[in-house]
């Protein structure tokens, strides 16, 4: 990563993102010890807000920031030149071409290829298996893309994370930030070793259910 | 030169904290089979709280008002995170947050008229109006009530602590507004601890078992008497009170501290949670610590203003 961009990224997170996330919002993190110190690793989480990516990037120290690679939908983030510049250079997204959003073309590159590459480079990949943000504070079914990653890199730790509150603070389609304390619950890492796709998906579902079990989240309807 | 009263008070806090720290350490050493992690983390959190208070006191009255405003923001945010809400009211919550800096601006400027009516009259009216714009009538009274109640508890009531700094008094004291602030905050927290200790030692008769099963008449009355005694001792240093008014203010703090405490307990019981949040390790949430103060602050303020304002 270019030194200038790395500096800009650190400034952006230290001066803007972290003060907003830690002071205006406020995180309550559980299971921090389950977070891999370094890559390669994949963090998977439920997705309710643009803040999700920024929060997951903020729970790592600034010096690790340049190794964090959030996977984002190419059709959304690469739409305008400004968004494209910002998401490529400051957030450093891995743009993913969502199969459902484009017509299949023959001979196209595997959409997961850039993710495999980042994992191969030892980066920490952030991946939202729901595919898109969805309705605030509602968990939708995980797509099995994450199982494809686990099959391709069976020994890479895949860390399930459940987040609550960010969809209240900044839901899809809204631009007004409303402060709420947000819960970030980090589960134990899973790997693809000895599991086929189906088994892997149910292992993840089980783990996410465990993370929310017995916890109080205020209703939001 | 003698130490200003407020610094004598802060020094006293650090001594108390030191004693508590040593006591926890000795207890943990003497009973290795028992788990003292919660008590230790509670004491550690007290270090941070007292450190914050000391720094704010060093920066002066205006800094103290801003600090109380920030605490108010944290308390309101915790409240809003805790209670059930309608997603449609998100924008209304945004405006409710905006009320916090405005309320503390009245405090900062010493504008008593708006300070007392802004939230009960203007914010009340605005919230009702803004809630109507969402177009949702199911759960309307719940939404309006929950929001207004939270604003009164965490913003309006706590802002009275700030106004102590700018309230003109008929008899000036060396400690000034900071002295009154210290007096009510310290006695309220002290009363919590005293009621707890008396209850642990002699508690037999439950006072309100359905809301707070741990509270007993022995704890309540023992704490009350201890708080009244201490309020008389400290009054000369921090307040313009004579001995009778000091005792009355101590009684006020003892009784209302208890009511505030069990009110927040009732909210938690209603929602089925043990703590209001986790902002203060070992204590729980901000509201778990400020519960008594949300009730003692406004009533102590009006006591001072009526008799000495």
Structure description:
The complex is a heterodimer of chains A (221) and B (309). With 221 residues, chain A is α/β, with parallel strands linked by helices. Chain A is built from 8 helices and 7 strands, in the order αββαβααβαβαβαβα. Chain A has a 7-stranded mixed β-sheet with strand order 1-7-6-2-5-3-4, sandwiched between helices. In chain A, α6 (145-152) packs across α8 (197-212). Chain A is globular. The termini of chain A are far apart. The relative contact order of chain A is 0.19. The mean pLDDT of chain A is 87. By secondary structure, chain B is mainly α. Chain B has 3 domains: 1-59; 61-166; 167-309, no CATH class. In chain B, 77% of the residues lie in helices and 0% in strands. The longest helix of chain B is centred in the last third of the chain and has 29 residues, at 243-271. Chain B is globular, with a radius of gyration of 20 Å. The chains are: A alpha/beta (221), B mainly alpha (309).
Average pLDDT reading of chain A = 87
Ranges of chain B where pLDDT stays below 50 over 5 or more residues in a row are none
- Class of chain A, according to the CATH hierarchy? Alpha Beta
Alpha plus pi helix count of chain A? 8
Q: State Rg of chain A.
A: 17 Å
Order of helices and strands of chain A: HEEHEHHEHEHEHEH
Number of strands of chain A: 7
The biggest beta sheet of chain B is recorded as: none
Report the mean per-residue pLDDT of chain B as an integer: 94
Principal-axes geometry of chain A comes out as globular
Task: Find the CATH topology of chain A.
Answer: Glycerol-3-phosphate (1)-acyltransferase
Largest sheet descriptor of chain A: 7 strands, mixed
| Gap from first CA to last CA of chain B | 29 Å
Low-confidence stretches of chain A: none
